[in-house]
Known about the structure:
There is one protein chain. By secondary structure, the chain is mostly helical. The protein has helices at residues 23-37, 49-52, 54-62, 79-91, 101-117, 143-159; strands at residues 2-5, 12-16, 42-45, 66-69. The strands form two sheets. The chain has a two-stranded antiparallel ribbon with strand order 1-2. Strands 3-4 form a two-stranded parallel ribbon. A hairpin with a 6-residue loop joins strand 1 and strand 2. The longest helix has 17 residues, at 101-117. The radius of gyration is 20 Å and the shape is globular. Residues 153-160 have low confidence and may be disordered.
Amino acid sequence: MLTVIDEYTRECLAIHVQRKLKHDDVLAVLTDLFTRHGPPEHIRSDNGSEFTAIAVREWLEKVKVKTLYITPGSPWENGYNESFNGKLRDELLNGEIFYTLKEAQILIKRWRHHYNTIRPHSSLGYRPPTPETILPRPVGLPYTALRSAQQGDHNRQTLT
């Protein structure tokens, strides 16, 4: 699994699940993330061959992203990702047996959504990194009136 964490927000941006990861997989995931979020100033990673491959280093240099490789045998230098990987193992992987790659991809994607939108994080004041939002009920307006108004707005938007 290739896990990508935003160190600032603690959001898990991606978990790429394959039987074997190569530098092409890293490039595909990073390209997608850079397209959606813009390129970061730095990327911190271990010294795995998929990250130190010449193609990955040259591509990162072209898009002006600096690399912060951790010292081999020093996982504490990548604490946010190591902590995330521990939670992934404790909360999902230790309790599952995946019979197919597709099953693993689906269940891990579902857990990632839960991790980002529902699961409280102590470092974020016991809030999730990207909570799902709900439309608050205006004070004094009963729920049924609000629901009717929302449905009316939706119908108007659909017709225009």
